[in-house]
């Protein structure tokens, strides 16, 4: 199992994943922190959701709170579900690696998506995050609690996960002018997710 299998796996399992995905919004405290920290333009926050999946429940929650959502996913089947679930949002079929949309956002999210990339691809993503963050824009992503690799499951298929060390994530963000606001490894109030919230400098 390698990171190169991820997109094909989610292509096959998109509908089953969407049906099985928890909709209880255990992520809500972190999403509320993002809303509270992110700047606004014209009374709205423009959010880029990388690895957006079906849009449920994260993008839907943010959309309900007057965020303008752009969803990006490398699996076309996920993009189709996202468009069906959030018809007023913008959706794009694209790989997050090396992405350059030529615009900036008030917040960028990579929830349970970025950690499917290899360690080298994760390192390169911080330039991509920075390129899409407006000044004072907020970054929210999940990782592992420390450096390592793991294999998880999506339905009956195995999926790859990787993480860098917290110190390396901090260093990579610092190189891009992104400062950590909060990091909670294995957050007990978020089903054990390790979550980062950070902000780009002005």
TrEMBL record:
InterPro entries: Methyltransf_25, SAM-dependent_MTases_sf. Coiled coil: none annotated. Residues 47-137 form the Methyltransferase domain. It comes from the Bacteria. CDD domains: AdoMet_MTases. GO terms for biological process: methylation. SUPFAM superfamilies: S-adenosyl-L-methionine-dependent methyltransferases. Transmembrane segments: none annotated. Pfam families: Methyltransf_25 (PF13649). One of its GO terms (molecular function) is methyltransferase activity. Keywords: Methyltransferase, Transferase. This is Methyltransferase domain-containing protein. It comes from Celeribacter neptunius.
């Amino acid at each position: 199992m390698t990171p190169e299998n991820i997109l094909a796996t989610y292509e096959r399992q998109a509908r089953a994943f969407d049906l099985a995905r928890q909709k209880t919004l255990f992520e809500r405290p972190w999403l509320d922190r993002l809303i509270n920290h992110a700047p606004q333009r014209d009374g709205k926050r423009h959010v880029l959701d990388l690895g957006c999946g079906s849009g449920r429940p994260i993008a839907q929650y943010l959309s309900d709170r007057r965020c303008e959502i752009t969803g990006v996913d490398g699996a076309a089947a996920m993009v189709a579900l996202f468009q069906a679930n959030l018809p007023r949002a913008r959706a794009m079929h694209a790989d997050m690696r090396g992405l350059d949309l030529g615009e900036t956002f008030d917040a960028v999210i990579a929830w349970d998506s970025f950690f499917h990339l290899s360690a080298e691809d994760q390192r390169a993503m911080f330039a991509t995050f920075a390129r899409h963050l407006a000044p004072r824009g907020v970054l929210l992503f999940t990782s592992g609690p420390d450096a390592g690799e793991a294999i998880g499951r999506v339905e009956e298929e195995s999926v790859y996960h990787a993480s860098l060390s917290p110190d390396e994530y901090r260093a990579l963000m610092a190189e891009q002018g992104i400062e950590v606001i909060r990091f909670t490894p294995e957050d007990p109030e978020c089903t054990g997710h390790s979550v980062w919230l950070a902000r780009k400098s002005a």
